[in-house]
TrEMBL record, chains A, B:
Pfam families, alphabetized: Dak1 (PF02733)
NCBIfam families: dhaK1
Protein name as annotated: Dihydroxyacetone kinase subunit DhaK
UniProt entry keywords in alphabetical sequence: Kinase, Transferase
Listed EC numbers: 2.7.1.121
PANTHER family: TRIOKINASE/FMN CYCLASE, TRIOKINASE_FMN CYCLASE
UniProt GO MF annotations: phosphoenolpyruvate-glycerone phosphotransferase activity
Domain of life: Bacteria
Enzyme class: transferase
Species of the source: Candidatus Methylobacter oryzae
Domain DhaK intervals: 7-327
Gene: dhaK
Amino acid sequence: MKKFINSVDNLLDESLHGFAKAHSDIVQFNAQPRFIKRIKSSTSGKVALISGGGSGHEPLHTGFVGTGMLDAACPGQVFTSPTPDQMLAAAQAVENGGGVLFIVKNYAGDAMNFEIAAEMLDCPHETVLVCDDVSFPKSHSTGRRGVAGTLIVEKIVGAAAEAGADLATCKSLGDRVNLATASMGVALSSCTVPALGKPTFEIGENEIEMGVGIHGERGRERIAMSSATEIVDYLSGIIDDDLRPQKGQSALLHINGFGATPLMELHLIYELASRYWEKQGINICRSLVGNYTSSLDMAGCSITLSLLNEELLRLWDAPVHTAALRWGC
Amino acid sequence: MKKFINSVDNLLDESLHGFAKAHSDIVQFNAQPRFIKRIKSSTSGKVALISGGGSGHEPLHTGFVGTGMLDAACPGQVFTSPTPDQMLAAAQAVENGGGVLFIVKNYAGDAMNFEIAAEMLDCPHETVLVCDDVSFPKSHSTGRRGVAGTLIVEKIVGAAAEAGADLATCKSLGDRVNLATASMGVALSSCTVPALGKPTFEIGENEIEMGVGIHGERGRERIAMSSATEIVDYLSGIIDDDLRPQKGQSALLHINGFGATPLMELHLIYELASRYWEKQGINICRSLVGNYTSSLDMAGCSITLSLLNEELLRLWDAPVHTAALRWGC
């Protein structure tokens, strides 16, 4: 394993200190327990949005803390859930009279630890569980995983909260965006978790993993390496069958890199995916291409389609000022 | 080789079509000959800034086309110079009465092809040759390479041009920023050029290449894998010896990922590098961390220090609206 680290034990803290220093105009880092919060206080009565999860998916979630998006993010160790004391401390630091909305990717550990934190909170709170990964059927035993669509929920609900939406409105908006969003990924290579020191899974020189999870979990099937068009059509076809978008609907198309795939290839995937959806009569009117929900150094990408009506598009377009997404302010 | 491509022959065009489609509010793609230009016309009399070079370093340079930065960028094939007809066509498309400034990374092919284009231009023109890579001595036979510092030249001169600076001012400003900027990189792994299909160089499991070029060119020396702190101190020491910043000077610290290194590690490098410079009495007052001058799928990073006085800081902070850098508008 070759990585830029001093030791596995302090990798996360050294990285978070660097992140907060590089973006000291936007965020600050609380070390004990660990959370990243906005430097600017929110308006009194604003719903506080808090997310979190295992590290290794940067910029998710820390890179989305700031005006128009999250109030705080709680990073766990690499691919490991944060602990309830982190969420509780973050909530106490940013709650400002409007209650707390937790935005949680659907993994057993994350869901449980956010739930424990929620039970200990003495202010109004709600949780949006994101489960946009359509690799497995809806009936899957542990439910579907939350992946690259999470940032779309965070952005849209973040804009609503900033504009004064109350807790119930934010909660139902988050659930709506989650239901309108579907993602599917493919891995060309494994990632390497620093504490493990070797690839999470083995994969042959001519194989790719369709429907891979963002921690390198097994997907739907392993197939032979294919052309970019075949890969895009496979992923998009599964999204299409699941989300069943109607002709003429407007959508955001998000191509997410897992970490080691060049931007040049992600733009090529965007071209092919946008052709696919245009052929289906979908109006691709917003785009996001880059490494946003990464999986350490995994080569691969995911395609996310999010169906956005005029209200949701307006919230997507609203000003945002975070380390990883910034426009309009 | 596992990459998202249909064929080596149309990789570049499919990618550029996707890039232009994903950012159709900012840029448009001219396919024959290839260049990316701003969608919004510039003010009459504004100096037109044009850059370019081999592809595979995205977002450099296409991702820096837009208000406050470049007027056009000419992408060559992967790691291959663009041809003079590209620069000539781009110049004819964006020249608007203020003349043309070419910003060129110092590689033999790029320098020659931009020079040929310049000779064919029938409007006032100047060229800034960027050579910020301090891996080799100033006296090196082909001169020093232009690497991650190039975007700082493009951003600062871009802001000046937008504010109405004339061609001579833009040229001398670009030269000043180049002289005030030093970079040094390290590779943990090789990149793989699609047309070649195998890694550009071999490197042992316990070796790293200090001073590597952004195409995988040999660097200063190959050493044993070291701790992140040792690597940062090595790179920063060489920059320090070369640039000789004075105590109290203000600087931008840019940590650039080569493509396959997780953001988590880049932020850790930022933390260690900022500690190094603070110890030397340098005032690190601006930061940029991420994959900006990439080398396809190479794992590694570079450190760039750019000494910016108040005038240059103001230009760095000025509004910019491109695919890869966006603030203030």
